[in-house]
Write a structure and sequence with these properties.
With about 400 residues, the chain is mainly beta. It folds into 2 domains: about 30-125, no CATH class; about 135-400, Neuraminidase (6 Propeller), CATH 2.120.10.30. About 10% of the residues lie in helices and about 45% in strands. The protein has helices spanning about 35-40, 50-60, 110-125, and strands at about 5, 10-15, 20, 25, 40-45, 65, 75-80, 85-95, 100-105, 135-140, 145-150, 155-160, 170-175, 180-185, 190-195, 200-205, 210-215, 225-230, 235-240, 245-250, 255-260, 270, 280-285, 290, 300-305, 315-320, 325-330, 335-340, 345-350, 355-365, 370-375, 385, 395-400. The chain has a 6-stranded antiparallel beta sheet, with no helix packed on it. Strands 6-5-7-8-9 form a 5-stranded mixed beta sheet. Helix 2 (about 50-60) packs across helix 3. It is globular and about 70 Å long. The two termini are about 30 Å apart.
């Protein structure tokens, strides 16, 4: 059953795995058509019963695989607990079946061990990295106010990290994965803070005159990019470390927002309304000069997320057809394609570490929001909701691996 439970001193929300929603029950629907032909059939016949739910959830969410019977699958996957924080993974194939890979996997918990083992399973079978054992920070309105929550990458459980009862937004991981930057008016004005997840200490990072709106750490260095309006309009600022004084990078009359680092930490994309309406620009970190990215899909493009594996690709949000959709721009091809489809708005994209899967926020006509996961490898793949209404309205996800 879904519900909040205290586990090892932490309040967590536990829910049934989900691929499709019916009320508060989550069902694993059938996969049919062209997509099934591209997927690798695997079975979980040798997996311990208590681990089946999480393993099935991960496999269905990935997209490269489909669950099948042992008789018709290419690979057999066995997961067996070896204590509270370790599992044994076995991969078998052939007829009759022979074990081709077998190893123990430990983790910070039994669930973490399973997800790490499944990451290795994906790598062994496809040759590609996976994302299952990553973590996500996001906003939820479960308490009536938007607060920061943490979860595993599949949102099988969640734990609240703030309880200010104020406006809290823009959570982003520091590059160590040990803390989270966020913006809040917890002390009247919007300031930027850093929460150390180990010590639970909250430090004020930016409390300058005007609005302190966003902080995002360089994935390769200690640098932190800020959006601050200390000099008037919101501009990009850059500091060499979390607590050092930032310098102003852009200096114009436009409004900048949504900084996005490249995977190597050498480039940055921002949203700017320098031409009247918001568009994506690459900003020179030395001169502040803005160069527009020719997405050519909408007069309103925002919220860029740089693919961590393929730097020629970025995801972003665009106003299309009276709503919002998640799109992808390819620098090499100079082309844009729409990734999200359907009647719901798609926005706030954030890539998983494998560069294949994309998290984003779906918003219904009623304003309800939820986090979904999309496999961008196959055109036929549909976004998978990661939670139901018991998680509250969720948005602004930020992934860390």
């Amino acid at each position: 059953m879904n519900g909040w439970k205290w586990i090892l001193g932490t309040l967590v929300l536990v829910i049934t795995p989900v691929c499709a929603q019916t009320g508060s029950t989550i069902l694993l629907g059938p996969i049919e058509g062209e997509l099934a032909k591209k997927q690798i059939a695997i079975d979980l016949d040798g997996t311990q019963k208590s681990l089946l739910s999480l393993a099935s959830r991960a496999i269905n969410a990935h997209g490269a695989f489909r669950l099948s019977t042992a008789k018709s699958s290419r690979f057999g996957i066995s997961l067996v607990a070896q204590g509270s924080k370790e599992v044994q993974l076995s991969i078998s194939s052939g007829n009759p079946r022979k074990v081709i890979k077998k190893f123990p996997q430990d983790g910070t918990s039994g669930k973490d061990a399973v997800l790490k083992a499944l990451d290795k399973m994906v790598l062994e079978i496809t040759g590609e990295a996976s994302f299952f054992s990553g973590r996500i920070a996001y906003l939820s309105s479960l308490s009536g106010k938007k607060e920061i929550f943490l979860s595993d990458a599949l949102m099988s459980s969640a734990s609240p990290q703030t309880s200010f009862g104020k406006i809290t937004f823009n959570p982003s991981w520091d590059n160590s994965g040990q803390g989270i930057f966020f913006t809040s008016n917890r002390k009247i004005f919007n300031n930027i803070y850093h929460l150390n997840l180990t010590t639970r200490k909250i430090q004020t990072i930016a409390s300058y005159r005007g609005s302190n709106l966003r902080a995002l750490q360089n994935p390769r260095t200690s640098q932190v990019a800020f959006i601050l309006s200390a000099s008037g309009n919101p501009e990009v600022w850059l500091s060499e470390s979390m607590l050092s004084k930032p310098r102003k990078v852009t200096n114009n009359r436009s409004n900048e927002s949504g900084p996005c680092w490249s995977p190597d930490g050498r480039r940055m994309i921002v949203t700017s309304d320098s031409r009247g309406r918001p568009q994506l620009y690459e900003v020179s970190l030395s001169t502040g000069r803005l160069t527009r990215i020719p997405t050519n899909v909408s007069s309103h493009c925002t919220e860029a997320s740089w693919n961590p594996v393929d730097p020629t690709r970025i995801a972003f949000t665009a106003a299309i057809g009276g709503g919002f959709q998640v799109c992808e721009y390819n620098f090499a091809e100079r082309k844009t394609k729409v990734l999200s489809k359907g009647t719901r708005d798609g926005m706030q994209p954030n890539w998983a570490s494998d560069g294949r899967h994309l998290f984003y926020t779906e918003r219904s006509s009623s304003g309800a929001t939820r986090i979904v996961l999309l496999d961008t490898e196959f055109e036929e793949a549909k976004p998978i909701p990661l939670h139901d209404s018991s998680f509250g309205n969720c948005s602004q996800l930020n992934f860390y691996y």
